[in-house]
Each structure stands twice: as structure tokens, then as C-alpha cells.
Amino acid sequence: MDFAHSADPAVQRQLDRLTLLSPGRDILGLQRITTLLARLGDPQLRLPPAFHVAGTNGKGSTCAFLRAMLEAAGKRVHVYSSPHLVRFNERIRLAGRLIDDALLAPLLEEVLAVAGDLQASFFEVTTAAAFLAFARTPADACVIEVGLGGRLDATNVIPAPVVCGIAQLGIDHQAFLGDKAEQIAAEKAGIVRAGVPLVTLAYSASVADSVRTVAAAAGAPVHSLGEGWTIDEQPFAYRDPFGTVPLPEPGLAGAHQHLNAALAVAMVRHQQAIAVSDSAIATGIAATRWPARLQPLDHGTLAAMLPPGTTLLLDGGHNPAAAEALAIHLGGQHVTMILGMLANKDAESFLGLLAPMIARLVAVPVPDHDHHPPATIAATAAALGIPATTAADLPAALTIAASPTTGATAESRERSGARPVANARPAAHMPPVAGTIPADSAAPNGYAPPDDGVAAIGGAIQTGSTAQSNTRPPADLSAPAASTAPATATPPATSTAPAARTAFAASTGPMARTVLIAGSLYLAGVALALNGTPPD
After folding, report:
1. Among 134, 216, 356, 520, which one is least packed by beta carbons within 10 Å?
2. Among residues 66, 94, 54, which one has the least CA distance to residue 276?
3. What share of the chain has pLDDT > 90, as a percent?
4. Strand, helix or coil for residue 515
5. By 3-state DSSP, what share of the chain in percent is helix, strand and coil, each rounded to 5?
6. Residue 458 pLDDT greater than 50, yes or no
7. H runs (alpha helix) in 384-453
8. Under 8 Å CB-to-CB from 426, ≥6 apart: which residues?
9. Contact at 8 Å (CB) between 265 and 277?
């Protein structure tokens, strides 16, 4: 269930109505959204040219690249994305600007007025509101991010997008999409339409076959990375039969963003409805911003709690594929991780892939959502040899992070035999780009980054120090009144890891120079709100 709050009383009244009318859980299917849209005059039939994007990881970033390129070409762009981080308004962007409260309140009221007997979900009502706003507001294009899956997602009522795209595929939302990668791929590919180009990244053979089977049945041509278009890493460039487009470094951090940027470029170049020049493509790639994706917080309330020279990063990653991307980006540097995860996420697999890089972990709750108890996350971390403790909230966790490192270092844990969890599932469906962990190997279970702190992906060198290097002003270390968590603690008594590896107070040394808040986009939203830097 997505909880939403607004400072505007009129908007909040409608969000409260939405919460009460919603069944309170994610539900898939097209019958309710189709009926709801019909009652509103079928606005999905009057949208500007639509770019429709699915995927397990990276679809939001791909949408951000698409928007930036289209806007660089002088186009007015609607965007529908989820979830929101701080304000509900973030989900609906009208012609380049977040929807105003003065428009949002009556829009939601109008949709809710005809939705009462349908048991429509939060996402279905929101989707209907977005499409209604898009149909009424002039624009040149709209970028639509799939919410969950694809085939039965509420966004999958667009009759004829100009192009469809599928980003990275992996294991997530198994209760809805199935446990097998091939099942998930087929569900994601369900957004295809007859004659509409489907642009994808490269996947393992069985996953690619699932995508192609669905596309063939629908009569959709498929253009996959390595089969129709490619990328060069040094220097970064995109190639297809129409030519080569030199590209700058993406505005979003992380080697994985090269793939998301290239996917967006391929989508633009495989549609014919909107002309986008090579210069607009390059300008857009460099200018792209998308919050909570390895986002540096170099100013604000939370940032000021850390000592000068500390890098504070925010990332909403919460599954094994995201953990692999984080591991590659960190490049061997050790971090203090502040982690909160929803109850339906696999904390053990996520932490197992990152264990060698976590100097210590502080587990926190995810407010207003069903989440893993912090003590459970701390116990999971301790079983992996990660020094761990808990905090009541993010300010308390930052207070702990600002203190000297306590607990065994990553090197001492490795000497003692601590390794990532044996059953941590790698993102087996990541594109097989040179330099990544092999898609069909078990290497991530024992993955240790190079000692020099450098990781290579597709020939591009990324270092933790150069990829993000923000230095903060002198810190105000006076903790808020709520931040009373102790700087040292022991893992929960349920931990079975050897005491030599899990005692949080075993040693004292300099604090990790990078603090990473991760595990949930909802937690990332809390961080942005507390920091005073909400998305705009």
C-alpha cells in the first residue's frame, strides 16, 4: 500500500478518501482500470505520443533519460512515474512541471467520484488521474513507467505507444510475477503492441527467448542490445544501423546508468513520431537527474550531521540486481550502511552481495510501511559478519554513523572467514556486459572487489572516489533530541554468528568516509524530506 501525505488540505482530503476506498494492497488486472477510464471518457485514447517502459531495475532512470532528451529537443513532456518519494505530486508531471495542488485536488476528486464501487487500487486511481490530466494538457510526448510487471499493470491500456522498452530484468515481486526469471520476463514483455518497436537490453538466452516469444505473438519487432544496436564504453557512444551517436557521461552516477541511458537512446531512435537530434540526445543524457539513485546529499539537515569530508549517498535499491550495481559503483571502498527494507524484500540476498564493503550497518524502520524489523535486519547482517546495530529513525542512525567505526573491519571479517551469504541470488539477468560478474556464475556469493578500489564495467573504469566526491561544510554534530541511539551496541541476541565477528564494540577506528542510506525508495523519501531537499 502506498501512503501519501500532502501539506495542502484539499489534496490531503482526497488522498485520505483514496486510502479508504482502496483495497489496501497491490492488485493486478485490467478490468477495473478499463472500467474506470471508460467512466472518465477514455482519456488514454487521447494521449500525446507515448514511450512505455517496463523492467525490474532501471525503468525509472530510463524514463528520466527519455524525458531529458525530449526536453532538450524542445518538447513538452508528460511523465507518469512511481512511487513518489516525498510528495504525491511527483507521480504526475505535466508538460515538464509537477502537477500543482490546485489542479491535483479536483482531479483526484473527479476520479474518486466514479471509482467508489470498483474497489480500484491506489495505483489504478492514480493512473486514471494521470491519464486524465495528460489528455487535457497540451504536450508533445508522454513517458509512462510501468508500476508492477507489465501485462496486467494499470498502465497497459495505452493502445498504441510509439515505442516500448524493457530495462534490466531480475527477481522481484515474486508473489505477483512468479519465481522464475522467464516468467517475470514474459510478464514485463506483456506491454508489447502489434507493429510497435520493442527495445530491450541483453538478457540470458532463456530470458531473451521469453521476451521474443511474447513479442512474436503480438507482432512486435524486437531490437535488443547486441542485436541491432550496441554501445561503446571508451569513449561512451551508441551505435545502430542509422549511425553512431557520441555520448557524454550520464548525469546519473553508476556504471549501470550507461545501460539505462543507451536503452533510452535506442528507444528514441527506433520510433518515428518525434524527431530528436543527436545533439539533443547528448545534452539530455548529461543533464538527467533522478533522485534516490546514488544521489549525493551534499547539503541539508542530514548531511550536516556528518563530519567534513564524508560522502552521504542515497539509493533506493532493494533487490539483488541493485546490490550488484551498488557493489560495482562502490569499487571496494568500505561504507557505513543505513538500511531499511520492506517486509516483502529479501534482505539476506541484498546484504550478501554487499557484505565485503559494509564496515558497519545501522538498521532502521521504514515509516508507514510493512517492513523488516530493524533487529531482524541487524541479526541477518551479523550472521554475515557485518557489525550491526539498530536505530529508531534516520537522525538517530546518522548520529551513529558520525561516530568512530566500531566493530570488526571488512578485512578482519574476511580473515575470520566471513563471506557473503551462500544463497544470495545474483541478478542473473543483467546484460552480459564485459567486466560485470558473469550472468550464469556463482561469483557474487564470494565477490570481493579489487583492493585498489576500482571496478570495471564494459571497459569503463569507475572508482568510488571519483564517481562521487562531494565535500561537506563543517558539521553540526549536535544531534536532534530524538537521536538518542547509542554509538555502540551488540547485535540482537538471535544472531548465531561467532562473537569475534559480530561484536559491534569489538574495535574502534576512523569512521567510514562514505555513508549510504539504502534499501527502500520509501526510506529514501523520508531522507529527502528530513534533509530538506525534496524532488522538484
Report:
1. 216
2. 66
3. 70
4. strand
5. 35, 15, 45
6. no
7. 394-401, 410-415
8. 320, 324, 353, 437, 439, 441, 442, 443, 444, 445
9. no
- Among 349, 334, 380, residue whose Cα is nearest residue 491: 380
User: For the chain, how many residues are written?
Assistant: 536
Burial class (CB in 10 A: 0-12, 13-18, 19+), 504: buried
d(CA 231, CA 246): 10
Q: Which residues pair with 143 in a beta bridge?
A: 51, 79
Helix pair 347-354, 374-383: axis angle to 10 deg: 40
Whether the per-residue pLDDT at 447 is higher than 80: the answer is no
**Contacts for 217 with CB less than 8 Å, ≥ 6 apart:** none
Q: What is the arithmetic mean of pLDDT over 360-383?
A: 96
User: H or E stretch including 136?
Assistant: helix 122-136
Cβ(338)–Cβ(516) below 8 Å:
yes
Lowest-confidence segment of 61-65, 336-340, 451-455, 528-532 by average pLDDT: 451-455
The x, y and z cell numbers of residue 184, run together, are 517475470
- Which strands, in side-by-side order, build the sheet including 311-314? 295-296, 311-314, 514-518, 335-339, 358-363, 388-390
- 279-321: pLDDT as tens digits: 999 999 999 999 999 999 999 999 999 999 999 999 999 988 8
Q: What is the percent of the chain with per-residue pLDDT over 70, rounded to a whole number?
A: 77
Worst-scoring range by mean pLDDT, 190-204, 493-507, 515-529?
A: 493-507
DSSP 8-state secondary structure symbol assigned to residue 472 = P
Give dist(CA 127, CA 34) in Å, integer: 11
d(C-alpha 5, C-alpha 8), whole Å:
9
> Beta strands 141-145 and 77-80: pairing type?
parallel
Which residues in 122-149 are b (16+ Cβ under 10 Å) and which e? bbbbbbbbbbbbbbebebbbbbbbbbbb
The predicted-structure confidence for 95-123, as pLDDT tens digits, reads as follows 999 999 999 999 999 999 999 899 999 99
